[in-house]
Every structure is written in C-alpha cells, then in structure tokens.
Amino acid sequence: MYSALSSTSRISTGIKGLDELIEGGLIPGRVYLVTGPPGSGKTTFALQFLLDGARRGEKCLYVSLVQKPEDIIHDMARYDPSILAYVKKWRIMLYDLGPILWRESTKVPTWRSVLSRIKELAEDEKIHRLAIDPLTAIDFPTENTAEKRTELARFIRGIENLGITALLVDEMTEMDRYTEEHYLVSGVIMLHYFMYNNRMIRAIQILKMRGTKHDPNLKKLEFSDNGLVVFNKYPFEEEG
Ligand SMILES: Nc1ncnc2c1ncn2[C@@H]1O[C@H](COP(=O)(O)OP(=O)(O)O)[C@@H](O)[C@H]1O
Ligand SMILES: [Mg+2]
What we know:
Helix 6 runs parallel beside helix 7 (145-161). This protein has a single domain (15-231), classed as Rossmann fold, CATH 3.40.50. It has helices at residues 3-6, 42-55, 69-76, 82-88, 98-102, 111-124, 145-161, 180-184, and strands at residues 31-36, 60-64, 92-96, 129-133, 165-171, 187-196, 199-209, 219-224, 227-231. By secondary structure, it is an alpha/beta fold. The chain contains eight helices and nine strands. Strands 3-2-4-5-1-6-7-8-9 form a nine-stranded mixed sheet. 31% of the residues lie in helices and 25% in strands. The chain binds adenosine-5'-diphosphate and magnesium ion (MG). Residues 36, 38-44, 223 line the site of adenosine-5'-diphosphate.
C-alpha cells in the first residue's frame, strides 16, 4: 500500500499568501526548485521555508555554497530575529560548503558528496526540511548530459528516500533556458522582477507543481517587514 496515496497533508512554504495558491503547501518528502535572477528573493524564500519548519519544532538544514551562512542569517534576522535562537538551538543547522569551493583543490562538492553528507546528518538528527543555495555551485563529475541527469536524479531520489522536503535554489540568468533540474523536480517556483512605470515590480510564478492544481500566471510578490508576501493578483495592476 502506498502511504503517499492516502496522505493529503501539505507542508507550509512559510511565505504568506503562497500556500493558498498551491492547495495548502508543498507535498512532504519532495524536492522543489526556486529559481530567478539575482536579488529576486530566492535566499529569503528558502530561509522563510526553513524558519516555518523550525517554528513547528522541525529540524532544518541550510546548505550554503556561495554566501557565508552567518551573513545570510544576519540579513534574515532583520525580518525575523527568532532565526538567531533557532540557529543557536540547532533547529536550523548551517552547512557551509563555501570553504571547499574556494579552496583550490579538485574536491569541488559533487551531488554525491553533498548527498552523503546530508545522509550522515539525517542519521544523527532527523532532518525535515532542507535548502541548498545555490545548486549551481555543485559540480558534476561528468560533462555527459545523460550522466548528469542520472547524477541529479539519484540525488533527488536520495533526498526523497530520507523523507526530507527540499528547496533547491537555482540561479537563472536566461528566463527561457530550462536545465535538467526543471524536469526532475516536483515543482518549479520562479521569482521575477520587472521595470514598470519606472518602478520595480516583483512577481512569483508557480511554473510547475506536480499533484497540485495551480494558476501558472504571475502573482504579485512583495518584500514586507516580515519577508516575502504573495498576493493573489496580477502584479502590474495599479493600487487604489
Ligand atoms: N526589506 C526589503 N525591502 C525591499 N527589498 C528588499 C528588502 N530586503 C531585501 N530586499 C531585496 O532583496 C534582495 C535580496 O534577496 P535575496 O533573497 O538574497 O535574493 P536572491 O537570493 O534571489 O539573490 C536584496 O538585494 C534587496 O534588493
Ligand atoms: Mg541568494
């Protein structure tokens, strides 16, 4: 009997206004992608997701590849100072892969090495939520497209087998370029910004969400005092 078939529970994204647009949230134990250009809010999104888990007493893991985790936590504390306490209590665990990346060695993190480290951590402490930011810094041991796909699929399956709900942060420079990860994950959330009437307009788009009825059109996204907030409306409509 597949337990997944009888389960209708959803896991909150931690983003105000977003769960309502995706039947209550993400399906637990699946891997999702958050993508968008620089400054579109990907890191904030990932941390809000982990904070929501921490608040519910879950163990969360943030794997950082480029930015120093301390800086990220410091920036996020402006929205929600409670993140500091969760980090101290190891409710949000930080795993900095940066030093491996910057050292001039051949030991660049690969999908395999990242998965095996996550497995180790998951054995010690049950991890409920995971964010990897950004996955573009993880290396493939091959240039072969089919092998890359297998490598990534193995990683995604590995995370799913651990029962972890994961957000992979992807850096998208060309909006019309879809890479392997877009096909393999359970959902793709795209963050956008546009210049409109000399103002910057932010938007979110649920591009793909398996097993979920959703509107794939752009929705208004804003940075509030508490972080990112989604509005169920077209982002370009003038207020008032
Ligand atoms: N309080 C705020 N109000 C408006 N914009 C903000 C606020 N805080 C951060 N930002 C914007 O969000 C950006 C950082 O978002 P981040 O989640 O790091 O994006 P990404 O990971 O996609 O690069 C900042 O560079 C800034 O432009
Ligand atoms: Mg970022």
